[in-house]
Design goal:
The chain is an all-alpha fold. It is built from 17 helices and no strands. It starts with a helix and ends with a helix. InterPro entries: MFS_trans_sf (IPR036259), TM_effector (IPR010290).
Length: 425
Amino acid sequence: MRRLLAGLATRARGGAGRVFRSLAVPNYRFFFMGHAVSVVGTWMQRVAQDWLVLDLSDSAVALGVATALQFLPTLLFGLWGGVLVDRLDRRRTIMVTQAVSAVLAAILAATVLGGVVQLWMVYVLALGLGLVTVVDVPARQAFVTEMVGPEDYVNAQSLNSTVHNAGRLVGPAIAGVLIAAVDVGLAFAINAVSFAAVLYGLARMDSSALRRAPRPTRASGKALQGLRYVWGHPELRACLLLVAVVALIGQNFRVVLPLLARDTLGGGPEVYGWLTSALGVGAMLGALASAGRRSVTSWSLLRWAWIFAGVNAFAAFTPWLAAALGMMVALGIANISFNTLARTMLQIGTEPQMQGRVIALHSLVFLGSTPIGGPLTGWLCEQWGAGAGFLLAGVASGVAALAGTPLLRRSRSAVSEMKADAQEV
């Protein structure tokens, strides 16, 4: 028995070491710690902004419009943002985008706390943050490949998802309490201050230890080259198709959840915070499970797309708070597992000099679809309630998974093995 327990303890330690192995890299550790603080503030702002828009407008369509404006620039300029990321120093680029994001959060805090905020101001600042996102998102995601080696891409991306969703767990809960007890503007102010942590982490990095990707020449850096590259690789093409449908229809949580909290469950901002936190609990669990993966396959991506579709369909028919919280946990697990696998497949299956453009293409379909999906889901929920938004997400994701099956059936090998073969060549 003693030997058995010792063996189990050894395996547990080995498993934990495998899950958190990227933290052994000092540069990644600095990035991870700074991001862990900043992301709490980011989620506080998201919840606060959604509730502020609902309070100012009493309109689900207005919620969709505010969310759409934040991601419209990615739809319009996302490909060119990837070109910039491939040409510029990624670490310095992230420092600039994070600093600008802090300024925008501070302006929003000042307008709310000063009692002068109007709906159009929220729209303008959301659009400004969207312009920053065009470069910030692909830069942060592609920067992972400079901090860790190829063997740790899956792990580092999963840990990023873990800390992101830990913030989703903590941030909304804090924001809900602050909004109900103090003022919505305080959440924006805290977010503005939180950016100092990630800026400090980036400043502490050893730039000489970064694995810098080759900078493309002007001739090879065209914005559409990433699209041609993905189209020439069937597995990457199928991956982006699934991401496009799931993002367009299935991930409009910031439109659906406030309505679920207020109209279906009869609650206030604190209930919206609980629902978002429950989504974060599930997402954190899913991200930790993904961090232990050694490889990524197209079949695992397809499997999680089906699970995501099924959970959404069940969530459409949950009229009680306890049931809704449970469904949000399950939805968070399915959502982050799908997203982490998709993002990792794209990174591992892409040549280093093309990563910025391919990740920007992912951002375009992942975030850029929101200007269409957000208002559409908002209108649908205004007509038939929050459950209709979940049901649409489930049906659309299931149809996309069904359509992607024939293509993925012809490509069964692990993407990590494909990357290893490419490196040997």
